[in-house]
Amino acid sequence: MMLEFFFTRGLRALATLLLIVTITFVVLRLSGDPAINILGLDASDEAIREFRRSWGLDQSIWVQYVRYLQAVIEGNLGRSMLDGRSAVDAVIERLPATLSIMVPGFVLQLVVGIPAGILSALRRNTWLDRLVMTSSVVCFTMPGFVFALLLVMVFAVTLHWLPSGGAGTLAHLVLPVLTMGFFGAATLARFTRSAVVDVLGQPHIRAATLRGIPRRRIVLLHVVPNAALPVVTIIGLMLGGLVAGAVITESVFSWPGIGRLLVTSVASRDLAVVQTILLMVGTAMVLANFCVDLAYGFLDPRLRHGQGNSANKG
Amino acid sequence: MQHASVAPLLQIRDLRVRLQSIHGPIEIVRGIDLDVGRGEILGLVGESGCGKSISWLAVLRVLGRQATTTGTVLFEGRNLLDVTEKEMAAYRGRRLAMIVQDATSSLNPIHTIGFQLAETLVHHRRIGWSSARTEAKRLLDRVKIPGAERRLGQYPHELSGGTNQRVAIAMALSGNPDLLIADEPTTALDVTVQAQILELLQEIRRDSGMSIVLISHDLGVVCETSDRIAVMYAGRLAEMAPSSDFWRSARHPYTRGLLDAAPDIDEPIGRLRAIPGQVPAPSETSRGCAFQARCGVALPSCSVETPAMTPVAKHHSVACLRSPSCGREIVQVPREVTACHPF
Q: What region holds the ABC transporter domain (chain B) (predicted)?
């Protein structure tokens, strides 16, 4: 049963990745000409022809697609059209910078969002609940770049406490991490709150109170584990948002990470680099969702026995 | 069993519960006086929504901020409605235990039976986890769950409703409470399991002298098991009488209606008799007796005056304006009123 679970999961993951490759290929190829984007409008016809020939752009789109797919399957993700370097190298080089704001940002989301949601649910309809939920709505609805610019205005321009952009010192990390963290924290707080409120209304919580179990223990051992299931689902989905957040955050703060590389590569239709980034993101998402599915079985014994059947439907 | 002679274990006086709703506060429980004697099984009957469970959840103070409870609940000389939340928590489970409706949903789905039992034991008896586990097994044996050792490692969804009900009873016993409140302990179970659970409750009382309040909408269940029966209607007590001879001595028109509505195994099969009309919604704050609209023997004064519980015999009180002046003959509701209500 477990084998079947891994097998179907694996097939679905492959299908997802193939879809990602295909869609990016189609969109990037149909929306602009890399030769002109990279060489510039005033390049000579000869140079453009030569560029197209050397990158195989003179072939039909089908031939290009099949060749590209073949290369990807062989593990060759191609070279950057911009400087001829291996696309994988170009991306990996930027990885540490992105991870250095993504990981703390994600941790910030969890550390702020989950406790805020739990507290809000436990103090439902009090001033604390309203405060948390109002700030959550504000953070949630405000576009990421507006939030980022607000932070710059307050902490960099007005107070001069922190640099407005660039990288190098720990101080440079603060504003990008805050930007990454707060949007996700707001989402997480709302979902955690509603999950906890839902569990608090379940009969077994009142039964535990009637048994005389102390409140703190009920919250930690009865409420939180039961509320974890929907929250873990959301955390899995939020990983996608994290990548989107990185693109915006890195652009606003001129952070030399993968998000900015993605923006510049799309602008120059540098297919190999864009594909490499998206494949990496896609793999990360597939892995994350796989972990979420495994977590379900760990968190809820009712799903454990039917893991092969029920969990892979979700 | 013992009534007025010894001081009762628990004394409820003028218990009122008000719930906040979008239409303003609604009084669900409207002034209840009730004593529970030591070692007594008190049956509490009434239709769904008449305030049976709410009263006891209010006594144990678990209704949350949306509810306001007034009155007094004397337990060993202390008013439970006045003690601090911390003190109250020490009463719950250890002195007063309550089994809520639907045992399966009253158990945490993600913890094993063994964990939940041991957790309660560790908390109440201040023992270590390993001895709690041994004790948990002993408790499961006591409530007659076969294969107790194996059950400890199972989850509520893996067990039957009857087994879960026994587990819930075992948990309630883990604090050795003086009073056990069992809310509809047999409702979701089939008849043979019902009988076993009721027998178990009686056995527990016999062995430990624990007082038990048995809440049920099933008059038959309550009559068989309890020593005294209290009938509730629309948030008030309608009648209270010893269960021996209850079938004949009950006087309140509502109680009579309930008794008549119970299908009799000796009678030829015919139509079931229902009490006409329906329970007034708690939001209807009408004057007078709440039952008068459905009552076949209502007096004009019934719509003005709210009847109080009045003694009519030893250990027997009725809240009806026709009582005690009227005996059974008037309360014998004319057939055309109660009979033949097609479903």
A: 10-259
User: Both ends of chain A: CA-CA distance in Å?
Assistant: 16
Report d(CA A96, CA A99) in Å as an integer.
5
Interface predicted TM-score (ipTM) = 0.84
Angle ∠(B127,B129,B132) on CA atoms, nearest 5 = 65
Q: Report how far apart the first and last C-alpha atoms of chain B are (Å, whole number).
A: 39
Domain ranges of chain B: 10-95+177-338
Report the distance separating Cα B299 and Cα B272, nearest Å. Answer: 27
Alpha-carbon distance of A201 to A223, in angstroms, equals: 10
Contacts of A204 in chain B (CB under 8 A): 105-109
Mark yes or no for CB contact B94/A212 under 8 Å: yes
- Beta-carbon contacts of residue A154 (< 8 Å; ≥ 6 apart): none
Looking at domain A93-300, its CATH superfamily turns out to be: MetI-like (1.10.3720.10)
C-alpha separations of B209 from B37, B75, B136, B201, B204 in Å: 11, 17, 21, 11, 7
Tens of pLDDT along chain A (314 residues)?
677 777 888 888 888 888 888 888 888 777 777 777 777 778 888 888 888 888 888 888 888 888 888 888 888 888 887 788 888 888 888 888 888 889 999 999 999 999 999 999 999 889 999 999 999 988 888 888 888 888 888 888 888 888 877 777 778 888 889 888 888 899 899 999 999 999 999 999 999 999 999 989 999 999 999 999 889 988 888 877 788 788 888 888 888 888 889 888 888 888 888 888 888 888 888 888 888 888 888 888 888 765 444 333 33
Cis upstream peptide for A104 (omega within 30°): no
Q: For domain B10-95+177-338, give its CATH number from 3.40.50.300, 1.10.540.10, 3.90.1150.10, 2.40.50.140.
A: 3.40.50.300
Tell me if chain B has a CB within 8 Å of the CB of A195.
Answer: no
Neighbouring-strand partners of residue B72: B13
Q: Which residues pair with B41 in a beta bridge?
A: B212
CA nearest to A298 within chain B = B110
Q: Give CA B173 to chain center in angstroms.
A: 17
User: Using the beta-carbon criterion (under 8 Å), do A204 and B105 form an inter-chain contact?
Assistant: yes
Determine, for residues A207 and B155 on separate chains, whether the beta-carbon distance falls below 8 Å. no
